[in-house]
Specification:
601 residues, 3 domains, 5-stranded mixed sheet
């Protein structure tokens, strides 16, 4: 048996190895994320300038409200003006952003964002190293696990804007101390389990739900036989300590979100949620970020032509990792490998979302129209009852029905799960479990050698090199953190008024948050996971711009200037002529990249 089953077992952790692993991970991170470190204070990574802009602004906003003004950061009065906006409608990632306040104060929000992003690779890898070294008793197995989890393609694509989802460093520590708690029954381990789960939840509410659903699967499988475990009062005491610790840490930050959830504000429509369901093929398709095969994969194998959407379905853990994981599952300690495999299976199942998809497209079973109508009407009634408001079940068809999956049941019965739009992200927990199996696989292979030798060490290093090669990436695109000329012009305009950038797609964009820092004006739109209903109910009027009903709405919101980018005129043929024919709009600013039109009564 590889994994030590006795609490008295010692593990080969020492400060020299730990420091060496940290330095190795830092070096490989700087190389894998090139050229990010060279633009630490001037640009942020991303394929589009949207989500990254949102989180750079939030880093500045936390510093501005907490340190400069001494007020709560949750309420923003100048975004989605005149209604205002609660940041409980999105992620604040407190376990990352609060420790970065000093960096934001010293070097600015761009540096804070980049340092958080870079450190997440190092810390995630190091946490995986600690976990697998403890599980396997083998430092090399721990290092391999650190490499896999740090640079798995899922994490790399999150670098482009999903700062909360980069906060994966707490996950391995949750399962490390969950394993120690189940195995050793120590209250100290239980307290650390609660601490790391709390930090994991405060990194991302997605991770709170994902680990909250899958950690019990791990614990129940690992605690078998259950009759003995249920009779163990020490284990119940550990459970209470872990839950109490996590609740004390999460509670204050979660309260605004719970309030928003009770009003039904944090709910994604089922039709939207279903679009973000993974397919089993997503785990088999190689990374689109690799410089050799990535371009071909992006063109021929990705489930969608929209690159920003395809990023959410990069779930592969690689060929080398798969081989080692299979070896670990076959030859590793059976109780532990069974638990890891079952938890990975549940994670994959949840990642498949609410209905079954094949290569990005929903699988629908042909049925007679009467059956389809009954099925769809039944689900419409069910949705209306659980959500307290009517919602049509619009993922069916007149002559076909989808194949429901367990995540649909969670969506219907567990209110917080209705706030999970992208179920494919459960693939991160699958990555975590497969990483552990691969680490155990290497440990098995090393122990099966007759005696430790240079050949064994060389073989271990070869496996690590192959993983790094398979996860090798193209250089990451980045966007400069600078104001636009129009922001300076807006800042000089006197009076209390609002602005909005149109068309509608441009209005709902993280850029609107970031640029508000420079021009200081109210913005009649904004960005986040959820939008105020007072705004979204006027979607049709905003899309009708520059019609009179749209201008009447903007005047009611005290909007003086409408901004339109030069590229949007090319994307929306007829927009320029429609504006020219509207006497209530006059051109007030034009720098060749963006125009500002003044709205008249």
């Amino acid at each position: 048996m590889i994994a030590p089953e006795s609490p008295a077992e010692t593990h080969p952790l020492n400060w020299r190895w730990s420091l060496g692993v940290l330095l190795f991970l830092l070096t490989t991170t700087l190389v894998m994320t090139r050229p990010l470190a060279l633009r630490l204070t001037t640009a942020v990574p991303g394929w589009v300038w949207n989500d990254n802009a949102e989180y750079v602004w939030k880093l500045w906003w936390l510093k501005h409200t907490i340190l400069d003004r001494g007020v709560s950061p949750f309420w923003v009065s100048h975004i989605f003006y005149p209604f205002g906006y609660s940041l409980a409608n999105g992620e604040l990632s407190f376990s990352q952003t609060l420790p970065a306040l000093v960096i934001t104060l010293t070097w600015g929000p761009a540096a804070a964002y980049n340092i958080l992003a870079l450190s997440s690779f190092v810390l995630t890898g190091f946490a995986a190293y600690l976990w697998l070294t403890w599980l396997s008793g083998d430092r090399m197995a721990g290092l391999l696990a650190g490499i896999i989890l740090a640079y798995v393609p899922y994490r790399y694509h999150m670098l482009g804007g999903q700062l909360p989802l980069l906060g994966t460093q707490w996950m391995p520590l949750v399962f490390l101390y969950l394993e120690r708690t189940v195995r050793c029954r120590r209250l100290r381990d239980a307290a650390l389990l609660g601490l790391f789960y709390g930090l994991n939840a405060l990194a991302s509410w997605y991770y709170a739900a994902m680990v909250g659903l899958l950690a019990p699967v791990y614990a129940l499988t690992r605690a078998h036989p259950w009759r003995e475990s249920l009779a163990d009062h020490r284990l119940w005491a550990c459970t209470l300590v872990a839950l109490t610790t996590a609740s004390l840490l999460i509670g204050p930050a979660a309260w605004p979100y719970l309030q928003a959830q009770t009003t039904g504000g944090l709910t994604h429509p089922l039709s939207e949620t279903d679009q973000w369901s993974a397919s089993l093929t997503d785990y088999l398709i190689p990374s689109m970020f690799h410089p050799l095969w990535g371009p071909w994969v992006a063109v021929h194998l990705t489930p969608t032509t929209e690159l920003w959407r395809a990023f959410e379905f990069v779930l592969t853990w690689g060929f080398i990792t798969s081989l080692l994981a299979l070896y670990g599952w076959r030859w590793g300690p059976r109780p532990l490998t069974r638990t890891l495999a079952i938890t990975a299976g549940f994670a994959v199942l949840f990642s498949l979302g609410t209905t079954l998809h094949l290569h990005g497209r929903p699988l629908r079973i042909p049925v007679p129209p009467a059956v389809a109508r009954t099925f769809n009407d039944g689900f419409t009634a069910l949705l209306s009852s659980v959500q307290g408001q009517p919602e049509a079940y619009d993922i069916g068809r007149p002559n076909a029905v989808p194949v429901p999956l367990p995540s649909l049941l969670l969506y219907l019965l567990v209110p917080p799960c209705r706030g999970l739009r992208v179920w494919s992200r459960f693939g991160m927990v699958a990555d975590l479990m497969v990483t552990a199996l691969a680490g155990l696989g290497l440990a098995v292979w090393r122990r099966q050698q007759k005696t430790p030798s240079r050949a064994t060490t060389a073989g271990s290093l070869l496996f690590m090199a192959l993983v790094l090669f398979e996860f090798w990436t193209i250089p990451y695109q980045s966007y400069p953190i600078t104001p636009r000329p129009v922001d300076g012009w807006l800042a000089r305009q006197p009076g209390d008024f609002a602005i909005i950038q149109l068309p509608y797609a441009a209005a709902l964009n993280g850029q609107q948050l970031w640029y508000s820092r420079y021009h200081g004006k109210n913005v009649a739109s904004g960005y986040g996971s959820f939008f105020p209903p007072e705004f979204t109910e006027h979607k049709a009027d905003l899309r009708a711009f520059p019609a009179n009903e749209s201008l009447d709405l903007l005047r009611a919101w005290k909007v003086r200037y409408v901004l339109i980018g030069a590229d949007d005129f090319n994307e929306w043929p007829g927009l320029a002529s429609a504006i020219a024919a509207q006497p209530r709009l006059s051109l007030a600013y034009d720098d060749g990249t963006i125009r500002a039109y003044e709205v008249r009564p």
